Amino acid sequence: MMDADAIADRLSDRAPKEIARSGVNRAAVAVVLRDRAPSDASGPDVLFIERAQKEGDPWSGHMAFPGGRVDATDASLRAAAERETLEEVGLPLSPARLLGRLDDLEGRHAGRPAGLVISAFVYHHPEPGPLRVNHEVATTHWVPLFELGDEARSVDFRHPAVPDQRYPGILVGVPDRHVVWGLTYRFLELFLETLDQPLRARWPSESG
């Protein structure tokens, strides 16, 4: 199965699409990978966080990659992703290897227009150790990266703000709670397509 070197090679084969438009807010996230047991050749785990419930936060309770908005004090988008990861889960990315960058995406959330551009940086961490979450994070989940394309994990997700619409989701924990969808799903889709491991999501209601 693909290791960190192979993932870095795949990411380096294509230039990420960067959105440089002015007048929008910026955010950055870290897609953090860790090796599984030495005897396990199935590939790395990837880190997700469950964002804490917070009134007024359009991404409250969502599954996400660690990260957040870029501050004026951040030297770069990458620096913002690393700072936010340290703040949210206590994981310094200075020992980690930057494997590459994904395409920038525009953040959209139910019922509101896009106004946020998010950048994603992929890291391989040799020894992440125990995580220490802050008030912004409810739970953390290390999930086998290449299991995310299994059809058994594909779920039908509906957001309470737009109950008449449905979105593709990937189950990574408790049903109806730990579902990767929306922006994080889109980043995951981009990442796995680059690795020739596309998501095979399908609507459960369409399966025979």
Brief sketch in words of this structure:
The protein has 208 residues and is of the alpha+beta class.
Would you mind describing this structure in some detail?
With 208 residues, this protein is of the alpha+beta class. It has one domain (4-150): Nucleoside Triphosphate Pyrophosphohydrolase (Alpha-Beta Complex). The protein contains 3 helices and 11 strands, in the order αββββαβββββββα. It has helices spanning 4-12, 77-89, 182-194, and strands at 25-34, 45-51, 63-64, 67-69, 97-101, 105-109, 112-125, 137-144, 154-157, 167-171, 179-180. A hairpin with a 7-residue loop joins β10 (167-171) and β11. The longest helix is centred in the middle third of the chain and has 13 residues, at 77-89. The radius of gyration is 16 Å and the shape is globular. The two termini are 31 Å apart.
Q: What proportion of the residues is helical, as a percent range?
A: 10-25%
Tally of DSSP β-strands = 11
Q: In one word, what is the shape? A: globular
Straight-line N-to-C gap: 31 Å
How large a portion of the residues is in β-strands, by DSSP E?
25-35%
Mean residue pLDDT: 88
- Profile the largest sheet: 8 strands, mixed
Number of domains: 1
Which class of secondary structure composition applies to the elements? Answer: alpha+beta
The helix tally amounts to 3
CATH superfamily: Nucleoside Triphosphate Pyrophosphohydrolase
CATH top-level class: Alpha Beta
The unreliable regions are 203-208
CATH architectural label: Alpha-Beta Complex
User: What is the fold-level CATH name, i.e. the topology?
Assistant: Nucleoside Triphosphate Pyrophosphohydrolase
Tell me the series of helices and strands, N- to C-terminal: HEEEEHEEEEEEEH
- Rg over CA atoms, rounded to whole Å, is 16 Å
